């Protein structure tokens, strides 16, 4: 099986740098990808933006913090992983 994704979009905020207990760098970034479609009925153009949370590890994470900033266009290639969480009310 193959799990590969390529995203090209703009950063919504400066990358957030954290470290694991072992000292490995971890960066979390919010990436916006957009598409524009023409409505068949009205002929009007509609924009749709999808937000992605991208996590990067190790020396690549350090480079992301060093060179990337809010609004910067980035190319991301990696694998897709969906994470689930539950709030205090059990939803």
3D architecture notes:
With 91 residues, the chain is mainly β. The chain is built from one helix and five strands. The protein has one helix at 58-67; strands spanning 5-11, 16-19, 25-38, 45-57, 73-78. Strands 1, 2, 3, 4 and 5 form a five-stranded antiparallel beta sheet that branches. A hairpin with a 5-residue loop joins strand 2 (16-19) and strand 3 (25-38). The longest helix has 10 residues, at 58-67. The two termini are 31 Å apart.
Would you kindly provide a brief summary of this structure?
The protein is mainly beta and 91 residues long. The protein has 1 helix and 5 strands.
SSE layout:
Elements: E1 5-11, E2 16-19, E3 25-38, E4 45-57, H1 58-67, E5 73-78
Antiparallel strand pairs: 1-3, 1-5, 2-3, 3-4
Please state the average pLDDT score. Answer: 93
Order of helices and strands: EEEEHE
Shape: extended
- Termini separation: 31 Å
Gyration radius, rounded: 17 Å
Please tally the β strands and state the result: 5
**Tally of separate helices:** 1
Question: What labels describe this entry?
Answer:
five-stranded antiparallel β-sheet; mainly beta; single chain; 91 residues
């Amino acid at each position: 099986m193959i799990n590969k994704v390529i995203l090209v979009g703009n950063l919504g905020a400066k990358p957030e740098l954290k470290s694991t207990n072992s000292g490995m760098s971890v960066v979390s970034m919010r990436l916006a990808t957009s598409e524009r479609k023409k409505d068949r009925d009205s002929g009007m153009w509609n924009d749709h933006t999808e937000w992605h949370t991208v996590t990067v590890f190790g020396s690549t994470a350090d480079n992301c913090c060093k060179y990337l900033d809010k609004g910067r266009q980035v190319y991301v290639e990696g694998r897709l992983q969906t994470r689930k969480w539950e709030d205090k009310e059990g939803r």
